[in-house]
Design brief:
two-stranded antiparallel ribbon; disordered C terminus; elongated; about 70% helix; disordered N terminus; mainly alpha
Amino acid sequence: MYQLLFIYLSFSYLSIYLSIYLSIYLSIYLSIYLSVFLIPIKMDSIIGSVGRLGKVKVRNDDDLIDRMNHLYTTGILIIFTVVVSARQYVGDPIRCWCPGEFTGAHVDYTNNVCWISNTYYVDMQDQIPVAHNKRKEKELSYYQWVPVVLLLQALLFYLPCIIWRLLNGQSGINVDRIVSVASDAQYESPENRTRNIKYVVRHMDRCLDNQRETRHSFCIRLRHILSANLSLLCGRRYGNYLVAVYFLVKILYISNVIGQLFLLDSFLGSGYRIYGWQVLEDLIEGKDWTASRRFPRVTLCDFEIRQLPNLNRYTVQCVLPINLFNEKIYIFLWFWLVFVSILSCYSFASWIVHMIFPTTRIQYVRKFLKIMDRIGTTPDKKLANRFTVEYLRHDGVFTLRLIGKNSSDIVVAEIVSGLWDIYRSKKSIQIRSNGHDTEGEDV
């Protein structure tokens, strides 16, 4: 009877243990999967909903890849900072195995001095070096500063966004307001939708007119031709100020995310920039990828105690539970930084192709004009080219592309149609007043 009860309890305990173990690992893998694959797709709607509930304004003056840099990555780093800080300041971040003659006060002193000084790692199978300079070469000098470095990384990821928002306001085009109203239009009733579209069209027309050059001379016309067709000159009056600033910010994002891999390599040491490849190699070969010299759980600590007239030196073995979290955090960060850097480079190349070459800008605008049945004849097609190059110019097309990335192509088509009607009416007035169509009047 007792044997059967013992067997039953043993199986019950084993089943409970296995279920907890499997649930923990499944939750970890599911969280990683959601982080890497579903965050870029769903985070916009989640953050937007939270912002609406908390009456916090979420800006829409950039694209998804930019928000992955300055919003999602910054949020992830701040969460990691809170986790590591809580583990350091709540509980014991380090526990050392002290000699038997140590009292409680001695043990507390040992834990504190080994935490603020740098411990060093020697494999259990290796002999501890006798020379102290050899021990110093194996020191771990990062674990006390992990929260500070994570906050610094978060600031560096948000810095390009601050630069973008400071500079784009000087273009004369309120990008955030235009994109926000256009994005809200797709969720409004038909009456409010029409009103919002008309507002965006009038606002963009005023902003584009505000960028026009009021002076007329041969040199000014030549500079505008070079900026419109070859993108050789940049400035507010050339209609490409926003694009130039945005490209600069894109370069800052790429430089930051790649530079942070080398920053962490310098901070953590031991070739962190190839850490992820080594983990993948260990997983493929079936090795234990957690057995890393970068984040050892068991380290050694040397310290001296002055007992007059002698100076006693001790070597103790310490456990660093914080490295259990650091290892998972930094392996996730390696894959995340590589992922974001690849997407940032792709986004920058895509914007270069879409904005530098006049043919791609013209095709983009003509696509929406065809959808709205605004062009059909050859004169209309030629006028559409001038509408894109002379009226919208780089900044106008750039704003339309941002609207498309934050709302839908239908909204962009309606805005392009409204701007086209305004442009044609202006052309008709010029023809009636001058008696003929003059080249370059809209520059």
